[in-house]
Amino acid sequence: MSSELYSDKIRIVYHPDYQNHYTTASCETPTRVTSIMKYLDNRFPVIQPDECADEDILLCHSDGLLTIEKQLPDRYHVARLAVGGAITAAQLALDGFTSFAVIRPPGHHANPDHNWGFCFFNNMAIAIMKLLTAGAIHSATILDIDLHFGDGTDTIFKSHDNIHVLNIQSSNPDDFLKSTESSLNSIGHSDIIAISAGFDQYEKDWGANLTIDDYRKIGVFAGEFAQNRCNGKIFTILEGGYYIPDLGNNVESLLMGIMQGLS
Fold first, then answer.
1. Torsion of Cα atoms, 25 then 28 then 29 then 33, to 10°
2. Per the CATH hierarchy, to which homologous superfamily does domain 8-262 belong?
3. pTM for the full predicted model
């Protein structure tokens, strides 16, 4: 399936400052995003996001956590850009595009008042909450396919009956795909579906589980869900994924699956 067929329907969200170095674990490096962008370069239009506002962060996080992160200005800047990238991707989805935010740092381990796992602010949760508080959506489904359970996103939306957070956890590829499909099939209408796309379940990454084509299949499930339950509204943001040589290939495979499911 040729990516060029979808260049008018897909938007990539990216900012050069995602390449900035800041204090974090050695595996969460700028090469994660540069490798993806090198692979996707010139295939799809790229939208450059702005930093989010502090008010956006406070939709999901405490004043205390925000104050702590402000003490580290280098990573605070990039973390705000990551949230801004997720917000931009969400808005693009409402505008009718299939969007993928190639952002760092990741965010699904950021809880209301603490963070861990290379995450500082919960990019996904803030983007969804911003749409909710603006009245742009009234319900959402979040599909998290990262190797690690997205505890921050789960905690933030635990009391929201209108937000379905699906953390897919399995070390068997067939079970992972079946669980993804059945979890999505259990949800009725949503105004939007958002994917927290971690690629560390990849067979050459930490999870040693999913193939490149498995990511296409996951994309098909999500795309079909978007088409049938969300009026085609779907966006994706980067979470984990640390096997650099195939990271861009996995991203494109997921995107092509989404477009296949939408068609």
1. -170
2. Histone deacetylase domain (3.40.800.20)
3. 0.97
